[in-house]
Amino acid sequence: MTCCRASLTPLAQYAKTVRDQLATDEQPPMHFPMYTVPLGTLLEMTKIEPHEVLKATGALVEFDRKMGKAAFISHQWVSPGHPDPEAKQMRVLQNALSDLMSNSRSIPPDMVTEINHPNLKPLPAARLLSEPLFCWYDYFAIPQREEKPKRTQLDAINSIPAYVDEVSFFFALVPVLENPLKTNLISPLTWQGRGWCRLERTVRELSADPSWIMVKSTGDLCLVTDALASSRAGSGPVGEGEFTVQADCLTLGPVLLMVLKRKLLRLLAVRDFSGYRALLNQQTEMLKGLGCEPIQLLPDFDGFEQDLSDQWDSSRPSFLVMKFFHQNGFSRISESDSSGWLPIHYAALNGDPSLVRDLLELRADPKQCTRKAHADLGFEAGTPPVSIACLFKNNEVVRLLLQARASFFSDNPFHKPLNSAAAVNNAEAVGLLCNAGCSAVQRNALGHSVIETAASFGTGLEAMEALIRHARAAEETFDPTPALHLAAVAWGSSEVVTRLVAMRGDVNAQTADEPAKRTWIMRALYTLKVWQHKFHKVTPLSKFLYHAKGGTPLTMALVTGNYEFAAALIAAGARLDLRNSRGFSAADLIPKQSAPEFLAEALEGRLLACQRVSLLARDWVQVPV
Predict the structure, then answer these.
(1) What does the DSSP 8-state code read for residue 82?
(2) Residue 266 contacts by C-beta under 8 Å, 6 or more apart in sequence?
(3) Which CATH class is domain 266-502?
(4) Contact, 500 vs 483, CB < 8 A?
(5) Which of these, 452, 374, 438, 429, lies nearest to 410 by C-alpha position?
(6) pLDDT for 26-72, tens place per residue?
(7) I need a labelling partner for 338 at 20 to 30 A (CA). Which of 140, 464, 522, 599 fits?
(8) What is the widest separation between alpha-carbon atoms in the chain?
(9) 306/449 Cα distance (integer angstroms)
(10) Which parts are the ANK repeats (predicted)?
(11) What secondary structure does DSSP assign to 15-80, as a single string?
């Protein structure tokens, strides 16, 4: 009795009514006007003025789609009281857009997106600039100087889904910058950690067009559309992000609930039941810290309970299982949907240990791997339930599955359980898996050890430290230097450099061979992308692979735009003169990368700025939005 059969589940029946619901509420409500500035005005700005000043001078425009296209600019404030006192952050965006206009170049997909979607085309500048462009930026768009701004600001906050729904493009403006007093640092990692920025990005990813553009420097723009690419780099639930006023996060729950409901309805309207289940069961994770209960669209059981109960003579399913099956449109324990996922997989995603326990009592298989790739979640085929629970930090479920003899020896090329735990700094799950017999130095299909994986994803060292402890206890050897290379390419932080160097990691080690050629998968990818690069089809992935052989962690960090990591390496003694097999050194690459000022100073032999950036990155100061 699946969603496609004549006898429809209540979910499939409900999906038939959804189009009418969406038609009556087509657009999210806009409680405050969408004030924007035309692109030409933005490009001419030399200082960042507040809403009131721009409105008085006539620089603001209320956007309407008939006027052209709009872009939403998400960013972290550089200083308390002002988002960009020296206009350095805005200058990066101005120069990047001017460069796109003058050179008509395209914005390529980021490396993870390119690997998972090899046929995805770059975003042409012509599409970005084919119509007049209007930019939404919080300091311009929301009143800043009202005596009682709370009402207006709340109206604007509640309008964020409407603003995002109106725009054609979403920019994350994330250059590495110090504040004027040199006491605070912002970066891609700190942007990912801010609660407000997480809200803006989440709203975009739940809209009709989930893609967004990351701007790290004038010449370093990339298109992010992949679930894995978007979920890395220290990202997480909105309510667990950093807020200057922690109580602010409680005002965001209703906003996110509205966005979630609309997205769930849209998925049902097009009968994307696997996408619906993926989002429905992520709600507990997404709503953490917001004081909200997950949305349940379907009404009560209405007889569906008897249909399910008839299948089990000896073991009557619990109310929790009945409710789960009802809301998810399942009718059998062994039923898989169009994405090859069974109820046990969505239950592991959901994170309710009581639900998982009840499913196991009904003989759900804890070793059952997914049968297909799930595009909405970024999991490939062959993913076991324990990997899903590890990635979403549902550690009570991890414990239950291991007690039920779930296997942690997976043929899955990337999402082995321990790799999944390491990728999200889930130290508790690392301990559970290693205590159950998992090797702390196992490798994935790309040839990367799990410790290298832990070093490469955002901030936080807890999972890496746990792996190191377990590796030493098991007398397993671990070389920290390859972790420096991988972390440079991914999202390693300054604190990762400090820790690996303390373990005698060599910041000047050059790869003996291409690290991307450790396995047959990467050998094939390497050959293809290097040939593309040689014939002028340059992408972030082809650029990295072209420069990989003989590269140091510093050259790899520069090639991939990980400027915070590069500063930390220089502060730790990385040399700028070592050349890779293509004849390029860090000193050659810095001028080509539109790199931040602190790296340009290092090129001149002045290292103080890199040392300061490295220190600030390890203890960045919270600033208001």
Answers:
(1) B
(2) 22, 208
(3) mainly alpha
(4) yes
(5) 438
(6) 678 899 999 999 999 999 999 999 999 999 999 999 999 999 999 99
(7) 522
(8) 78
(9) 49
(10) 339-371, 549-581
(11) HHHHHHHHHHT-S---SS--EEEEHHHHHH-SS---HHHHHHTT--EE--GGG-EEEEEEE--SBT
CB of 96 closer than 8 Å to CB of 221: yes
**Phi and psi dihedrals of 352, rounded to 5?**
-85, 110
User: What pLDDT is recorded for position 558?
Assistant: 96
Tell me the average pLDDT across 369-389: 91
User: Beta partners for 194?
Assistant: 242
Using pLDDT thresholds of 50, 70 and 90, give the confidence band for residue 506. Answer: very high
Residues 6+ apart with CB under 8 A from 95: 218, 594
Distance CA 538, CA 536 (A): 5
Q: Is the pLDDT of residue 492 over 70?
A: yes
Global pTM reads: 0.91
Residue 377 has what pLDDT?
A: 87
Backbone phi, then psi, for 271, in 5-degree steps? 60, 35
SS3 of residue 81 by DSSP: coil
DSSP reduced 3-state for 248: helix
Choose among 243, 78, 100: nearest CA to 174: 78
pLDDT band at 134 (very low <50, low <70, confident <90, very high): very high
